[in-house]
Amino acid sequence: MDGTEGIVRGQPVNDTGYPIRIPVGDATLGRIINVMGEPIDERSPIETEKRASIHAEAPEFVDMSVEQEILVTGIKVVDLLAPYAKGGKIGLFGGAGVGKTELIMELINNVAKVHVRVISLKDKTSAIALVYSQMNEPLGARALITLTGLTVAEYFRDQEGQDVLFIDNIFRFTQAGSEVSALLGRIPSAVGYQPTLAADMGTMQERINTNKKGSITSVQSIYVPGDDLTDPAPATTFANTFCL
Fold it and tell me: Looking at the keywords, is Metal-binding present (predicted)?
């Protein structure tokens, strides 16, 4: 999950006895954390006793809510022609430089003015918890960073009633999973992606859901390699999104 500088053969390793656990709750708002839940904003440590494992089960089918409500974004063309449903998964598909991140930043700005809790992987306001992992970071961090952000969002869904989770870019989750699969020696599937692509994506996306306590509305930007919508990465993500 971090650099290997200073690690030597024979160095003792301590078993914590539990999976990766990160801080959750109000203490994370306005802070920037990494995959391990450690602050990377050069500020004081996050002081909270509330912690949660990044590996969790999706809500049971009987616990899911069927109520439907529109999420007002403040962007007229979206609210009129392609409204977003609360608790839905919205995919923004496109190649490089078409404005996916710009739209997400505008949504963050508008939604944060209305909702008390907004969880984001990209931009920053005082009502947002940021979870960052850049492309120059180790493979493990890039593969699990989405689960860290999702864990923060799940806490606010269960405690506050609703959340908006921004993911930019979900293609990097698929890309990291492909690299992990290659290191494990698995036989690649179509276009070189991992054979477990559909299962990995489905397991993660099923956690972004609405239960009787509240909802998580997810807005995800999805990079389309070579503008090919039939590429397995965007095609698999497409199957897990509700509206575009």
Answer: no
Residues with Cβ within 8 Å of residue 188, at least 6 apart in sequence: 178, 181, 182, 194, 195
* Cβ neighbours of 101 (radius 10 Å): 16
Under 8 Å between Cβ of 196 and 181: yes
The pLDDT confidence band at residue 232, using thresholds 50, 70 and 90, is: very high
Q: Within 13 Å and on the Cβ side, how many CA atoms surround 86?
A: 17
Per-residue pLDDT of 32-80, as tens digits, reads 999 999 999 888 899 889 999 999 888 888 888 777 888 888 888 888 9
| pTM, two decimal places | 0.86
First-residue to last-residue Cα distance in the chain? 33
User: Vertex 44, ends 43 and 46: CA angle to 5°?
Assistant: 115
Tokens of 128: 């947002």
Residue 107 region by backbone torsions, left for phi larger than 0, else alpha for psi between -120 and 50, else beta: alpha
Task: Give the separation between CA 169 and CA 121, rounded to whole angstroms.
Answer: 9
Q: How far apart are CA 52 and CA 46, in angstroms?
A: 14
Q: Name the residue type at position 224.
A: V
Q: Where are the beta strands (DSSP E) in the chain?
A: 21-23, 32-33, 51-53, 70-71, 84-85, 89-94, 118-120, 128-131, 162-168, 215-223
Tokens of 141: 């961090």
Contact 167, 219 (CB under 8 A): yes
